[in-house]
Design goal:
single chain; alpha/beta; Purple Acid Phosphatase, chain A, domain 2; 5'-nucleotidase,  domain 2; 2 domains; 7-stranded mixed sheet; 6-stranded mixed sheet; 13 helices
Length: about 425
């Protein structure tokens, strides 16, 4: 007997592509089983923003997904309450074994594992998500070390199941470790690092499947059984570019959902990548004020689209700042702050196309500061009108995307306070309310 297991991951609200995937999966024979590995939700899309991810869940229902796990975009871009409500209308089961509230309870609708009998075979699914500890903590969740959590669940259900499948939103290196270190697993379906394997990867007898990002591929695993015993497993990818296009109406629906006017006065908010802009100055100043920080640092590429008109809507603001990026306040010594200012003045990423880190624009642009001064010829650094003291402590209002180590490696070790669930568009709305009230 053959069972075909289809899997998707990291769709990131590329809903036009996912529409093609829905049509493809609906045409599969009855020996087909479909799972999703998280980051289907991405609030950079207006339809996802307007429905707070519930529209994505409806689409997964339409695709007849059986089991899913969560990615960081489900877990850390929604409020505690909105995440708890995300799967209220789900027709599928959701598993994640390493996420709990502060009392140690699972989020609503999530399970440590799922056991599902299909075609006479008992499948055990165990989901796990990436360990973004400070972000989850700021939202009232605790995320635990995933490998220990997975091992515990494998041991708990191995005797009850014919096949054990890990739904991993942990990344390629963690998946390989799981295969090497945890016995009793038959298949790992991977996500998070946007990798793909044309024919899977075999590690320690475990087949690992991965299907890239944005719905570029559908993963297909062929499982051959002798009775209930798994005797063969093979992986391949199906390119969605080769599938028939389908109508995409989700942007229009998203625009309608976000049509509320939030600013009624004429306003000009230009986008400028390589020169001073009222828009970025306004955002940086408000970021400093809202976080009660000494100074602020952002980049001009955050403004994806400018605006000029008489009635700014939530949709206009979303187009301007679509990123699921949160503010963060970082504590630095004066010496460290000087290093950051000097690094930012070089603008080494100004022309770079940035992918990931929550950034949903294109070009990074120039760094923009607020309440910071720098006289390069004299190597003098200021916060406000005061010279920075190497031994004094300062706070910098900035972006969570800078804390992952690529842009400012020193931020990884500094004390940080994340402000969640507010996004930069929420900060901009506060700035406009302050400016025009």
């Amino acid at each position: 007997m053959e069972i075909k297991l289809y899997h998707t991951n990291d769709i990131h609200s590329h809903l036009s592509t996912f529409n093609k995937i829905i049509r493809y999966l609906k045409d599969r024979p009855d020996n087909s089983y479909y799972v999703d590995l998280g980051d289907h939700v991405d609030r950079s899309h207006p339809y996802t923003e307007g429905t707070l991810g519930k529209g994505n869940v409806e689409l997964l229902n339409e695709a007849h997904v059986k089991v899913a796990t969560i990615g960081n975009n489900e877990g850390i871009t929604l409020t505690h309450e909105d995440f708890n409500a995300l799967y209220d209308e789900a027709d599928f089961k959701v598993t994640c074994c390493n996420l709990f509230d502060m009392e140690g309870q699972l989020p609503r609708h999530l399970r440590l594992h799922v056991i599902d009998e299909f075609k006479g075979v008992k499948f055990g699914f165990i989901g796990a998500t990436a360990e973004f500890t400070p972000f989850y903590k700021a939202l009232g969740w605790q995320v635990t070390e995933p490998l220990d959590a997975i091992r515990k669940q494998v041991e708990a259900i191995r005797s009850e199941c014919d096949v054990i499948i890990i739904l991993s939103h942990l990344g390629i290196f963690a998946d390989r470790r799981i295969a090497e270190e945890i016995p009793g697993i038959d298949l790992i379906l991977g996500a998070h690092t946007h990798h793909h394997f044309d024919k899977g990867e075999r590690v320690n007898g475990v087949l690992i499947g991965a299907a890239g990002r944005y719905g570029e591929y559908i993963g297909e695993i062929k499982l051959q059984f002798d009775g209930r015993r798994l005797v063969q497993k093979e992986a391949r990818l199906i390119e969605t570019d080769e599938l028939t296009d389908s109508e995409d109406h989700y942007y229009e629906e998203g625009r309608d959902l976000l049509s509320e006017v939030i600013h009624h006065s004429p306003v000009s908010l230009p986008r400028r990548l390589y020169s001073a802009s009222y828009t970025t100055a306004l955002l940086a100043r408000e970021l400093r004020i809202e976080l009660d920080a000494d100074c602020a640092l952002i980049n001009s590429g955050l403004i994806v689209e400018g605006y000029e008109g008489d009635s700014l809507t939530k949709y206009d603001l979303h187009k301007m700042l679509p990123h699921p990026i949160n503010p963060v306040k970082i504590t630095l010594s004066g010496r460290e702050l000087k290093e950051v200012i000097a690094m930012s003045s070089k603008h080494e990423f100004r022309d770079e196309i940035v992918k990931g880190y929550g950034f949903r624009g294109d070009v990074f642009g120039m760094y923009v500061t607020d309440h910071i001064g720098y006289i390069q010829s004299e190597r003098q650094f200021f916060v406000g009108d005061q010279l920075i003291d190497d031994h004094q402590t300062y706070t910098l209002a900035t972006l969570d995307m800078y804390t992952f180590g690529r842009f400012f490696p020193q931020f990884v070790q500094n004390d940080k306070a994340y402000f969640m669930p507010e996004f930069l568009r929420d900060v901009m709305q506060l700035a406009l309310d302050r400016r025009f009230s």
